[in-house]
Write a structure and sequence with these properties.
GO terms for molecular function: iron ion binding; oxidoreductase activity. This is Fatty acid hydroxylase domain-containing protein. Pfam families: FA_hydroxylase (PF04116). By secondary structure, the chain is mostly helical. The chain has a domain of 193 residues. The protein is built from 13 helices and no strands. Helix 3 packs parallel to helix 9, helix 4 packs across helix 8 and helix 6 crosses helix 8. It is elongated, with a radius of gyration of 22 Å. The termini are far apart.
């Protein structure tokens, strides 16, 4: 690459003081020569690699009967045909919504004062609180927007696609109408942009870290599995698959993404908590029963909840009301 381009983009930079990753970052931007194209291409590739890379382990787990003991809805295992249909829909949204819009990200980011091609990277101490703020903002944004998508018109024409699977699986995290991808995706990117607008202190590598963690959260929440080592069993206010799986099964409740507190504060987890209490009480009453009998009981309770969800879905679609207790956020 021409030395002049290094000098133009990184005047006075001591490249020997940079880490290996920072040096590769510099090489990427200089090699492409156009920051807009370099950022757009990197952003798109990052999303695709992380999304499908994180989903593949769940596809493998779904194919192995050994893991059924931890599957929340063990009777509903996605078929290869369903996985492929889901993949096609996800790719369609990625190429029709994400790819055209992603080229606007670099100009918008720079206009707001975000560092993009610059090095060195910020420290983990700097990035950690920023990422937490993005989690907090996105969670509340999703909590409000998700409920709106459960109203009649928006549900019938947009969000209904995402609810095709009452037992979600990893790939289905972004199985949605392109309009929903745009609406809920706004919560992921608006947090960093607003933060940058007010602070002028944000590097795009922090945004990438946030997006990677957000994708992991979304895919894991749709995985359909609850392991003893799942994060919500360690951090009680984390949502996880156990929390979100109920939303797909029952249609109602649990509208947030990462944290449980908004649903608890506004009471949009009442049916979920009632269901968990019924399961706990039933298991206690059958503590001497066989594993098969307990499993049948759990399946019976799930079927009851799902039937109630089918009724709630029809009501939401026909009347335009929320399929659960609603809240008004001032």
């Amino acid at each position: 690459m021409t030395p002049s381009l290094y000098d133009a983009m990184y005047p006075g930079q001591d490249f020997g003081s940079l880490s290996w990753l920072e040096q590769q970052w510099v090489h990427w931007y200089v090699s492409i020569g156009n920051p807009v194209i370099a950022t757009g291409l990197m952003s798109f590739l990052l999303h695709e690699i992380v999304y499908f890379g994180r989903a593949i382990p769940w596809i493998i787990i779904d194919s192995m009967p050994y893991f059924r003991r931890w599957k929340l809805q063990a009777k509903k295992v996605p078929t290869a045909a369903e996985q492929w249909e889901c993949t096609k829909t996800v790719l369609f949204s990625h190429f029709t919504i994400e790819l055209p819009l992603i080229w606007l990200f670099h100009p918008t980011a720079e206009a707001l004062g975000m560092s993009t091609y610059q090095v060195p990277f910020p420290s983990l101490k700097t990035m950690a609180p920023q990422v937490f703020l993005f989690f907090f903002f996105e969670d509340f944004f999703h909590f409000v927007a998700h409920q709106a998508l459960h109203t009649g018109v928006l549900y019938k024409h947009i969000h209904k696609i995402h609810h095709k699977y009452s037992a979600p699986f990893g790939l289905a995290a972004e199985y949605a109408h392109p309009a929903e991808v745009f609406i809920l995706g706004a919560g992921t990117i608006l947090g960093p942009l607003i933060y940058c607008f007010f602070t002028r202190n944000l590097h795009i590598v922090t945004v990438y870290l946030w997006i990677v963690l957000r994708l992991f959260q979304a895919i894991d929440a749709h995985s359909g599995y609850d392991f003893p080592w799942s994060l919500h069993n360690i951090v009680p206010f984390w949502s996880g698959a156990e929390h979100h799986d109920f939303h797909h099964m029952a249609f109602t409740n649990n509208f947030s993404t990462s944290f449980r507190w908004w649903d608890r504060i506004f009471g949009t987890d009442d049916k979920y908590r009632e269901y968990r209490a019924r399961v706990k009480a039933a298991k206690k009453a059958m503590k001497n029963a066989s594993a098969d009998d307990i499993k049948k009981l759990e399946e019976k309770l799930m079927d009851e909840v799902e039937q109630e969800g089918i009724i709630a879905e029809k009501e939401a679609e026909s009347r335009g009301s929320f399929g659960a207790k609603t809240v008004k956020v001032q």
